[in-house]
Amino acid sequence: MSGTLNKEIKFHRLMNQRRVAYSLLQRLQTLLEPGSNFIRELNLLFKSQGKFGSRDRRLYRELIYTYLRYQTWLDPIRFDETAFLDAIIILANPTPEASTLYPTLSSPTANLQAPKDRHRLIGKSDNDLIELIPSWFQSHLSETLDSESAKTLFSRPPLWLRIQRGDPKAIIEQLRQASPNQANPPTAIWGVPDALLCPPGLPLSNVPAYQNGEIEIQDISSQLLLQLVHPQPEGSWLDACAGAGGKTLQLAKMIGSNGCVTAYDPRSKALDELERRSRRARLKNISLLRSKPDRGSYDGVLVDAPCSGSGTWRRHPFLMRQTREKDIFQHSEAQSSILHFYSERVAPGGILVYCTCSLSSYENKNVVKKFLETHSSFEPAPLAKNFDLEEIGNGITISPAHLDGDGLYIATFRRS
Predict the structure, then answer these.
(1) Euclidean distance between CA atoms 63 and 98, whole angstroms
(2) Model's pTM, two decimal places?
(3) Are 371 and 303 in contact (CB under 8 A)?
(4) Which of 33, 221, 355, 388 could potentially form a cystine with 405 if both were Cys, beta carbons 3.0 to 4.6 Å apart?
């Protein structure tokens, strides 16, 4: 009798989680105003519930992000609570939290397929995935999005790490001990120095190698960026849009003790985080600028320009729903201005690197074309021929499907 009662109590709790999820999803639209900080607003929404633990937040965040990925398909059934939530639970990545809701499905699905194929369970084909992308954005792509790229774009990305220092074998063993039951354990990637592929949701904060600064979170495409600069960076470099410093730390390691990296970002909190991370990584060749560098000359300048972030839509699907086409054009104008400003900090014979985490040609190839037309002292510099990436015109676009990471664009120039 007690077993039956326990099952009833558990099922009642699961149904209550569905009701809470539906309530949160109905309140979501106000969080998606263009320009708003969605992550901050979502955390405030969770906090307003007053009773969410970490497991609750992981569950509801997964369901909300699933809705944002598949919103075009889900909105027509939004007011049919049962059908709406069933579809979201089926489409959600099978995290430990989301999979607990499978018993609540009105028509239990016998074969919940791999994450990239789950759309087929609601009657959608691979070719239908293109419907999920804003219609205006399709003309921004340099090449047509094939079905495999679309499947990757709408799947949850893995956790990518980079070894900053330490013994790779010992670090991998620590990571595997932190996730002993994973079907795909942490592993090194052949041909990409220092890169580690880990399952999403790995409890990284408890891993000593992370606490000690031996490993850093950094997407695989971001890691490839500096590996594509040819020749390998050396001497004095400026990271002009450093953010919290993932690329700064990688650049400092590549340059070594014979060079130095100066980092600037207009956001003081980002520089505070970079300062903390550089101390943790025990790097002595990084200096921070707290004001915009309007003087100086560097062997290399990295401009990771602020952009629409369309290359990170799989990681941050709210950006896909917040971004408008006019935002792309505004970013493009700002990127041209930023690139012009920092080109003046490049020494004669030095390298200027331009990159974005965008898939829009207006933020990528068009910015590069305009720069070359208006800066005769710069010429395209060929990128390294690595990782099966082909340079078409000026620059390389790394698609999410290439190595299961974010989308990214990179072009380099040399000052005469």
Answers:
(1) 8
(2) 0.93
(3) no
(4) 221
* 228/222 Cα distance (integer angstroms): 10
* Nearest residue to 119 via CA among 79, 142, 153: 153
* Crossing angle for the helix pair 81-91 and 2-26, to the nearest 10 degrees: 100
Instruction: Classify each residue of 13-34 as buried b or exposed e, where b means 16 or more C-beta atoms within 10 Å of its C-beta.
Output: eeeebbebbbebbeebeebeee
Nearest to 96 by CA among 46, 144, 62, 45: 62
Task: Give the separation between CA 63 and CA 283, rounded to whole angstroms.
Answer: 39
351, 412 contact by CB (below 8 A): yes
Q: How is residue 412 written in tokens? A: 């380099």
Task: Decide: 315 and 26 in contact? Cβ < 8 Å.
Answer: no
184's CB contacts (< 8 A; 6+ apart) are 197, 199
Can you give the pLDDT of all 416 residues of the chain as single tens digits? 466 667 787 889 999 999 999 999 999 988 998 889 999 999 999 999 888 888 999 999 999 999 999 999 999 999 999 999 999 999 998 888 998 999 999 887 656 656 678 898 899 999 999 999 999 998 999 877 778 888 888 888 899 999 999 999 999 999 999 887 777 889 998 888 899 999 888 889 889 999 999 999 999 999 999 999 999 999 999 999 999 899 999 999 999 999 999 999 999 999 999 999 999 999 999 999 999 998 889 999 999 999 999 999 999 999 999 999 999 999 999 999 999 999 999 999 999 999 999 999 999 999 999 999 999 999 999 999 888 888 877 899 999 988 899 999 999 999 99
The set of long-range contacts for 117-122, using a CB threshold of 8 Å and a minimum separation of 24, is 117/151, 118/90, 118/91, 119/70, 119/91, 119/154, 121/90, 121/91, 122/73, 122/87, 122/90, 122/91
Q: Distance between CA 248 and CA 205 in Å, rounded? A: 21
Question: In this structure, what DSSP letter does residue 94 have?
Answer: -
β-bridge mates for residue 262, sequence order: 238, 287
